[in-house]
């Protein structure tokens, strides 16, 4: 957007058309209709007409709210598929050596718009030799697959067959900023347009006031056997004795119900963290102090979980217990199974554990339980 005195213009590139002054246009995001007043070129001159590929600055006859990433289109296009949606079916060409992970939040780049997105389902993978669609749970390097994905906020995307510019996108890894896939929109999913969150009068602030506390999330991460559950239990007992309202989300307990359909592959681990983070957000909104005890081995997944919360609401705590202590404890016999070769996806042995680089607190899971509880209580009060 360009502003100078009372000038208000919207800069972009024409991808369909041609367009002319006097044409009726609609903002694809809001549906607000206006008329093109002027078309200005990069040098400040005016156009009587601008075709596809032409960079222009558009001024409108009305004071219309147009935001970065919005599309101006014909009003008729809004009733023909181009309207905001949060769920799409798409074809992906996977370009990363690291496979697609279900539940991993990526960045979707479409034009000048960037929004978080999650691939929720892989519908199939194309066999490029036979042309047949094969069953698949993930996509690897150079695979072409049909997927369903959801975005955090509604975006306006065309079907690729109707417009390549507004029907294509990139997926970017949020941690490494690597482009992992190129996407082509097949169509918006019905649920992507029909689900509208309802705003309730009783909100988090009201619930916190009723409980007389400040809601907070403590996310305990560390190796299996590090003592996360033991620490969470001791901390909750302390907070309960202080009259505070809490809830613990323990990795094994969650996998016994909500996440019992998930295994321990990279993709399932990412989905496990995603679901727990979403549940944590609900409990935080209920005004509770939420203690999460979850291995959550990968930094990128923990970073995505943290991104769901406002600054100050989420504290990442690394239970930094020496690996030899964890293996000696081996409360569930996992290390013994891993060493025997019967547990290939064991974190710390079969799969990597990525320690937090900038945790809000580091505690020693092999030290005094009372001291660790004191530290975490101080963190909550800070």
UniProtKB/TrEMBL annotation:
Alphabetical list of HAMAP family matching this protein: Adenylyl_sulf_kinase
Similarity comment: family membership: Belongs to the APS kinase family.
Pathway: Sulfur metabolism; hydrogen sulfide biosynthesis; sulfite from sulfate: step 2/3
Domain GTP-eEF1A C-terminal: residue ranges: 89-185
Native species: Nonomuraea guangzhouensis
E.C. designation(s): 2.7.1.25
Domain APS kinase: from-to ranges: 215-364
Keywords, comma-separated and alphabetical: ATP-binding, Kinase, Nucleotide-binding, Phosphoprotein, Transferase
Name of the protein in question: Adenylyl-sulfate kinase
Reaction equations catalysed: adenosine 5'-phosphosulfate + ATP = 3'-phosphoadenylyl sulfate + ADP + H(+)
GO molecular function annotation: adenylylsulfate kinase activity
Positions annotated as active site in the UniProt record: 296
Function: Catalyzes the synthesis of activated sulfate.
Lineage: superkingdom: Bacteria
Binding of ATP, residues: 222-229
PANTHER family, sorted: ADENYLYL-SULFATE KINASE 1, CHLOROPLASTIC, BIFUNCTIONAL 3'-PHOSPHOADENOSINE 5'-PHOSPHOSULFATE SYNTHASE
């Amino acid at each position: 957007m360009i502003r100078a005195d009372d000038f208000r213009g919207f800069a972009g590139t024409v991808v369909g058309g041609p367009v002319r002054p006097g044409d009726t246009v609609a903002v694809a995001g809001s549906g607000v209709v206006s008329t093109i007043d002027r078309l200005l070129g990069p040098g400040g001159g005016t156009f009587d007409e601008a075709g596809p590929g032409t960079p222009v600055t558009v001024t409108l006859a009305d004071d219309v709210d147009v935001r970065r990433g919005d599309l101006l289109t014909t009003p008729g296009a809004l009733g023909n598929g181009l309207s905001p949606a949060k769920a799409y079916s798409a074809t992906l060409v996977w370009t990363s050596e690291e496979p697609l992970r279900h539940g991993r939040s990526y960045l979707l780049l479409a034009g000048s718009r960037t929004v978080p997105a999650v691939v929720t389902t892989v519908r199939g993978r194309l066999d490029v030799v036979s042309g047949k669609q094969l069953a698949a749970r993930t996509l690897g390097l150079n695979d072409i697959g049909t997927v369903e994905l959801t975005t955090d906020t509604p975006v306006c995307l065309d079907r690729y067959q109707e417009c390549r510019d507004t029907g294509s996108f990139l997926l970017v890894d949020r941690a490494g900023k690597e482009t992992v896939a190129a996407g082509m929109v097949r169509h918006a999913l019905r649920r992507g347009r029909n689900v509208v969150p309802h705003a309730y009068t009783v909100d988090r602030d009201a619930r916190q006031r009723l409980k007389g506390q400040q809601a907070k999330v403590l996310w305990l991460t560390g190796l299996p056997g590090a003592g996360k559950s033991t620490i969470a239990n001791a901390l909750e007992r302390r907070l309960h004795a202080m009259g505070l309202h809490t809830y613990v989300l323990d990795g094994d307990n969650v996998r016994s119900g909500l996440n019992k359909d998930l295994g321990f592959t990279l993709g399932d681990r990412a989905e496990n963290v995603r679901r727990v983070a979403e549940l944590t957000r609900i409990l935080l909104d209920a005004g509770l102090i939420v203690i999460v005890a979850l291995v959550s081995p990968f930094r990128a997944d923990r970073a995505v979980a943290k991104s769901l919360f406002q600054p100050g609401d989420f504290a990442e705590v690394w239970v930094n217990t020496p690996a030899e202590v964890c293996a000696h404890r081996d409360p569930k016999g996992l290390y013994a199974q891993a060493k025997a070769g019967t547990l290939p996806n064991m974190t710390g042995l079969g799969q990597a554990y990525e320690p937090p680089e900038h945790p809000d607190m580091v505690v020693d899971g092999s030290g005094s339980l009372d001291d660790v509880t004191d530290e975490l209580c101080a963190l909550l009060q800070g």
